[in-house]
Specification:
Number of helices of chain A: 2
Number of domains of chain B: 1
CATH architecture of chain B: Up-down Bundle
Oligomer: heterodimer
Largest sheet of chain A: none
Structural class of chain A: mainly alpha
Strand content of chain B: under 5%
Distance between the termini of chain B: 33 Å
Shape of chain B: globular
CATH topology of chain B: Four Helix Bundle (Hemerythrin (Met), subunit A)
Radius of gyration of chain A: 23 Å
Number of helices of chain B: 9
Number of domains of chain A: 1
Order of helices and strands of chain B: HHHHHHHHH
Distance between the termini of chain A: 73 Å
Largest interface: A-B, 30 and 39 residues
Largest sheet of chain B: none
Radius of gyration of chain B: 20 Å
Number of strands of chain B: 0
Shape of chain A: rod-shaped
Structural class of chain B: mainly alpha
CATH class of chain B: Mainly Alpha
Number of strands of chain A: 0
Order of helices and strands of chain A: HH
């Protein structure tokens, strides 16, 4: 099988690759969102802790 | 000793640490299985004698649909455990599952639609299988919306658990819909009592992708659960310490 045939998918290229493309995007977004959320949360919590300490001393 | 283990695992601090250790391994397993599944599914498996190459959408569609139901059952079970025994971590696991479950349901619906167009001649039919799967998506979205609408997270978790448990009735309907009602959707080829009516060259990539998606759910739900733990425990000493040393 050559590469052209592979990408052509027997005439169903649009349907097959759209499906796989959407799956890739959905899975990537789901993995990246909690990564970014955790970083942001930790930064927020650290900032709040510093502020609290400043206010008490 | 067992009791001790469960006690420790139910403590958010310990859970946060163990989950952090597990996530990279689960993600690596997911990547490996996916690469193998894509290779066997897109390159090795022959075209279908009726559907040509379009059937390769199945390697995404079917595992995604399985996951949509599997995750729902995990979510409802975790919700019930949280409801009965008031275990915080069960509440966390239940709500952390909702987003991933909704994503897999969305994927099952969209890839099914894209597969339906060339094979059935239509993007959508209002038959029992497609409609009950769409209701599953709305159940997930309802769970997420309800959780976000209630400020007190423990009350929110209880409300969400009840909604999730009521929605369980939809799961057997999805599963048996293709047997109970006439539909364009094909019947099961793998999950039936007879021998699976699918050739090994297609069954192997299907199962590889199914296991890959299980691992994907495992590592993403743990990442989400860690965030949820940070939110709920943000006023405890260990979270502040953790945040300040980062």
């Amino acid at each position: 099988m050559n590469l052209n045939e592979f990408f052509h998918m027997g005439g169903y290229a649009f349907y097959v690759w759209t499906s796989y493309g959407i799956a890739l995007v959905v899975l990537l977004v789901n993995a990246i969102l909690p990564l970014r959320q955790r970083k942001k949360l930790l930064a927020d919590i650290a900032r709040a802790a510093r502020r609290a300490r400043r206010n008490t001393t | 000793m067992f009791n001790n283990f469960f006690h420790k695992m139910a403590s958010p601090k310990y859970f946060y640490r163990i989950a952090g250790l597990l996530i990279p391994w689960l993600a690596a397993g997911f990547a490996t299985l996916t690469l193998a599944g894509l290779y066997y599914g897109l390159v090795k498996a022959p075209p279908d004698y009726q559907q040509g190459d379009s059937y390769r959408i199945m390697f995404i569609h079917v595992p995604a649909a399985w996951m949509s139901m599997f995750i729902y059952m995990v979510m409802a079970t975790a919700g019930a455990i949280g409801l009965i025994w008031r275990i915080k971590l069960a509440e966390v696991m239940a709500i952390s599952s909702a987003g991933v479950g909704a994503s897999f349901t969305f994927l099952a619906l969209v890839t099914g639609s894209i597969w339906g167009k060339p094979m059935w001649g239509t993007w959508w039919v209002w038959d029992a299988r497609l409609t009950s799967e769409l209701i599953l998506l709305f159940l997930y979205l309802g769970v997420i919306a309800l959780y976000n609408a209630i400020d007190d997270k423990r009350t929110a978790a209880r409300a969400v658990a009840i909604l999730a448990l009521v929605g369980v009735v939809n799961i057997p309907i999805i599963h048996y819909s293709v047997e109970w009602w006439n539909t364009l959707h094909q019947g099961p080829t793998v999950t039936k009592f007879d021998k699976p009516s699918i050739h090994l060259s297609m069954l192997i990539p299907l199962l590889l992708m199914a296991f890959a998606f299980k691992l994907y759910y495992a590592f993403v739900v743990l990442m989400r659960a860690r965030c949820e733990v940070l939110v709920r425990e943000r006023n405890t000493g260990w979270v502040r310490e953790l945040a300040e040393t980062k």
